[in-house]
Amino acid sequence: MHIKSKFEINSEWDIIEVRQEVRKVCKKIGFDYVTQAYIINFTSGICQNMYTVARSGVFSIEGIIEEKRMGIKIIAVDQGPGIENMADFLSENIAVNQTDGIRLEMLSVRRWFDEFEIASTELGVDGVEVTVTKWLIKG
Known about the structure:
Blueprint: E1 2-9, H1 12-29, H2 33-54, E2 57-65, E3 69-78, H3 86-89, H4 101-112, E4 115-119, E5 128-137
Antiparallel strand pairs: 1-2, 2-3, 3-5, 4-5
Helix pairs in contact: 1-2, 2-4
């Protein structure tokens, strides 16, 4: 069984709709309240970055139910300025300055989700494409 939703992000109201749908999917899958809060928080951050930096984007949510595990897969795609140096952007060892909010958030997302992929200009993608998955093991 799959649950799929797709949203255009063009306003802050769209972000609220995405948060509500992510909460609904997380509950249906069976994530505990703390995990739901983390997923919703990261979702909100990714959407906010998409809206403030790229001014728009597409956000997809997929609830995945398999025989031995269930999960939520999130794909965020925008057509913004992109990331030119992915190695530096994802480096844990670079000094932090006050403009690094987006980078630090992505580092947290990468650590917390079970699967993480990011593509941008360096890889031939216009803008940024982030795909993350969080799994819940059955039993």
